[in-house]
Amino acid sequence: MMKNNTCSSVLHFFPCVLLMGSVILLNQTALAQSSTDRFNDAEQALQRYQASLQELESAHGPYHESLLEPLQSMEELLFEQGQFEELAAIQNRRLQVLRTTRGFEHLDQIPLLEEKISTALRLRQWQEIGDQLAHIQHLQAVNFGADSDQALAAMDDLATWKLARIYLDEEADRPELVLDVREIYDQALKLLEDRFPEHSPELIPWQYKRSLSLYYLVAFMNNDDGLAGETIQDVIKRDGMSRLHSYRADAFVTGLRPGGLDRRTPIVEQGDPVGIAYLRQALAYINKIKDTAEQTGDLELLAMAELYHGDYQILMHRSSGQRSYRQARQLFVQAGISEHRLDSLLAQPIPIPLQEFHLSFDSLEAQQLAMLENSDPAPTAQDSEIVHLGVFKAWEEDLSAVALPRRLPEPLRFEIESNAVELEFRINSRGETSSIDVIQSWPEERGNERVAWRALRDIRFRPAFIDNKTRSTRNARLRYQFHEVEEQ
Which residues pair with 420 in a beta bridge? Predict the structure, then answer.
C-alpha cells in the first residue's frame, strides 16, 4: 500500500516542491546569516584583543610576557578565519616577545616555529619553511649539543624539506638544493663519527642517507634536459672537475654544448653515467656498512649490505649484481631465514635504490609486501601470469625516473594529486626495462602516457634472483604516478 505522505500524489507534487524549495532557501539563508554572525563575532573578538594589547603595551612595554596570551588568542581566531597573512604577522610578533622574555635560544620557541611552518605552508612560502627548520636545528644544537639526537633529527627534517622543495618550488635552484642535502648528511655523519666508535650500528642509517644523497646528485647530472647542465656546473664550482673526468683511452665526451668541448665538459667511459665517481663514493658507504656487520658478527646485517651492494652495481651500469645477490642469499640462510621466504622475496623485482636501509630481513619483507598491497587493483588469481610491482611515485617532471624521497614529517605534510599510468613491460637480468606497453592511464591523456613510458626506460630494478641467478621477468606491471601539488 502506498504511504499517505505530502508527496504521494501528483496533486501534491508542486506544493511539495515549493515547500522543499522554501526549506532549502531558509536553510541557506540561515547558514549565510550564521557565517556572517561568526565572522562579525571573530572581528569583534580581534578588536577586543587588540585593545587589550595596547593597554598591556602602555602598562608594561612592547615585549612584556603578558602580551603572549592575547597574541596567541588572536592567532587562533585568525587561523579559524583563514586569514593566514595576518596570522603570520601575529606569529612574528609573539616570537619577538618570546625571544625577549625567555632568551633567543629558549626551547619554548620550537612549538611556535612549527606553527609558523604550518602557516608558511598554506602561504606557499617555501624558503620561509626552510629558514624555520634551520632555526629549530640551531635551537636543538644549542640546548642538547650539535651531535644530539634532537639536533640530528632536525637536520634530517631540513634535508627532507630541501628534497621536497625540488618539486614544490618552481623558482628554486634545484641543483643547489640537492648539493645542500649532500652537505647536511655529510655534516651529520661527521658529528656521529665523533660521537660513536668506528663500527657502531648507530652510524648505518646515516651512512645510507649520505649514500642516497650522492645517488640523487648523479641522477641530476644525468637528466635529459637543462637540469643536467646546471647541476654539472654547480658541482664543478663546489668540487672541481676531477670526479667528472675519466682519463682512460676509451673515454668519450658527454653533454657537449654548442660551441664545442671545454675544460668544464665531463668526459666519461662508454656506458658510464656522468659522475660515476660519486656513485663509487656512495658504494663505499655500503662497504662501510658491510665492515660494521663483519666486525659485529651480524650475518643478517651483512646479508642486507650485500643486497644493497648488488643494487649499486646495477646503478653504476657495471654488472647485474648477481655475485652480491648470491652472497646475500647464502648469508641470509646462515642467519636462519627460511629458503621459502628468501625465494619469495628475491624472485620479486623491485625499483632501486631503496629509500632506506633495512636493518633486518623482516623489515625489507614487510616493505615489499606493503608495495604489493598498494597495487590497485590488487593481484588476483585471474592474472597469475602478471608480476605486480606495486606503485612507483616519481619525484618530479625532470626527475621522472627517480622515486619520490621518503614522506615528509609533521608539520610539513601536504596533500598532493597524482596522475597515474599502468604499464606492462619486461625487466632483463641487469635490471633494465624493455617492451613497454601502456595498459591504462588516469586521466586518459597521451601526454601522461608519454611521460610514464619515457620514465620507465630509465628506472632501474633489482632483477628477479632465482636459482642463484638473476633472471628476466616478463609481464611485469607497475603503476607509475607523478605528482601535482594541490592548490592551497
Answer: 442, 481
> Residue 110 and residue 157: Cα distance in Å, rounded?
14
Is residue 113 a part of any domain in this protein?
A: no
Residue whose cell numbers read 630494478 = 461
Please report the DSSP string for 340-381 in residue order.
Answer: HHHHHHHTS-EEES-SS--SSHHHHHHHHHHHHHT-SSPP-G
- pLDDT grade for 256, boundaries at 50, 70 and 90: very low
Give the integer Cα–Cα distance in Å for 242 and 201: 32
For residue 421 the three cell numbers come to 599510468
Reference 434, options 466, 451, 458; nearest CA is: 458
- Identify whether the C-beta of residue 331 lies closer than 8 Å to the C-beta of residue 302: yes
Instruction: Give the structural domain span for 380.
Output: 350-485
Instruction: Give per-residue pLDDT as tens, 287-325.
Output: 999 999 999 999 999 999 999 999 999 999 888 899 999
Query: Please, are residues 332 and 361 in contact by the beta-carbon 8 Å criterion?
Result: yes
Sign of CA dihedral 51, 57, 62, 66: negative
Strand order in the sheet with 433-442: 387-393, 473-485, 416-427, 433-442
Say what percent of the chain tops pLDDT 90.
Answer: 68
Q: Hey, is 387 helix, strand or coil?
A: strand
User: Phi and psi of 104, rounded to 5°?
Assistant: -70, -15
Is 434 inside a domain boundary? yes
Cβ atoms 137, 158 nearer than 8 A:
yes
Total domains in the fold of the chain:
1
Residue 455 lies in a domain: yes
CB 416 within 8 A of CB 484: yes
Residue 469 sits in a domain of what CATH number?
3.30.2420.10
Please, are residues 124 and 170 in contact by the beta-carbon 8 Å criterion?
Answer: no
Closest CA to 337 of 303, 374, 311, 313: 303
**Treating both helix axes as pointing N-terminal to C-terminal, what angle do 322-334 and 299-315 enclose, rounded to 10 degrees?**
170
Cell of 485: 601539488
- How big is the chain, counted in residues? 488
Count Cβ atoms below 10 Å from residue 224 Cβ, excluding itself: 11
Cα separations in angstroms, 294 against 206, 290, 326: 18, 6, 17
Q: Nearest CA to 135 among 168, 157, 119?
A: 157
Is 391:481 a contact under the CB 8 Å cutoff? yes
Calpha distance 11→36 (Å, rounded): 39
- CB contact at 8 A, 75 and 103: no
Mean pLDDT throughout 72-83? 93
- Residue 16: count of CB within 10 angstroms of its CB: 15
Q: Helix, strand, or coil here: 426?
A: strand
Report the alpha-carbon distance of residue 20 to residue 297 in Å, rounded: 77
In a domain, 423, yes or no: yes
Residue 271, Ramachandran bin (φ over 0: left; ψ between -120 and 50: alpha; else beta) = left
